[in-house]
């Protein structure tokens, strides 16, 4: 299916979703958010896709959040309120994807774009990347992205960023912990490709069950999480991929995953 605000490509088990609005610093219009949700659904439904890379077109920005100039609306407040919920639903789509996600970040990742990057499982950033939540300087607050922020760094650190609106360079982002890897600009594509290939090479069924369990228990108490994890361990050991992995280890050969 064709996209207007995105590029969508699949190669060697990796789907690459590119926000293609470089003239707007890859800011998110209503249509772009809707298309992102559709692209993620496509990746989820495609058995050939085993990992997803999310990035922005051009050299200046990953994504700078909502396109405020394009989101003005004369429609009813209730409709606008529901439309704003598309960002929350987009985060939910990423967490429920069942396949690993990588944010490839170059340039600015601001406001909702910052949240979008942190809604991915891992973030690989070029050393020219800049992160921030400037909403407070517009008389607003980054409500929708609070969840991915506090899931990706110490909560009080997230609060400080939200209260000050200050920007964080790639080196500090790695120190804080919400960026997984920082590389020179000319090594960004290679680093992302290597990580995506590694993730795509793993058992699809173990990856799905394990990743789903992570997002299921991340907000739970230990008392609630451990029984669920115990059950999932038993389920995982009963899969064909688990039996193949153990057999391949014993036979000292690479496993051949069936995805079941």
Report low-confidence residues grouped into runs of 5 or more.
Answer: none
Label the CATH architecture of the largest domain.
Answer: Alpha-Beta Complex
Amino-to-carboxy terminus distance: 28 Å
Q: Tell me the major beta sheet.
A: 6 strands, mixed
| Rg calc | 19 Å
How many domains comprise the coordinates? 2
Structure annotation, total helices: 10
Across the major sheet, the strand order is 1-2-3-5-7-10
Order of helices and strands: EEHEEHEEHEEHHEHEHHHH
The residue fraction in helices comes out at 40-55%
The level 1 CATH classification of the largest domain is: Alpha Beta
Structural class comes to alpha/beta
CA-based shape: globular
What's the SSE blueprint?
Blueprint (H helix, E strand, L loop, with lengths): L5 E6 L2 E6 L10 H16 L5 E6 L4 E3 L13 H19 L5 E5 L2 E3 L1 H7 L3 E5 L3 E3 L13 H5 L4 H10 L2 E3 H7 L4 E3 L4 H13 L3 H14 L4 H16 L2 H11 L10
Parallel strand pairs: 2-3, 3-5, 4-6, 5-7, 6-8, 7-10
Antiparallel strand pairs: 1-2, 8-9
Question: Can you describe this structure?
Answer:
By secondary structure, the chain is an alpha/beta fold. It folds into 2 domains: 6-200, 2-enoyl-CoA Hydratase, Chain A, domain 1; 204-250, Lyase 2-enoyl-coa Hydratase, Chain  A, domain 2. The protein is 45% helix and 17% strand. It has helices at 30-45, 77-95, 112-118, 146-150, 155-164, 170-176, 188-200, 204-217, 222-237, 240-250, and strands at 6-11, 14-19, 51-56, 61-63, 101-105, 108-110, 122-126, 130-132, 167-169, 181-183. It has a 6-stranded mixed β-sheet with strand order 1-2-3-5-7-10, sandwiched between helices. Strands 4-6-8-9 form a 4-stranded mixed β-sheet. Helix 1 (30-45) links the parallel strand 2 and strand 3. Helix 1 (30-45) runs parallel beside helix 2 (77-95) and helix 8 packs antiparallel against helix 9. The protein is globular, with a radius of gyration of 19 Å.
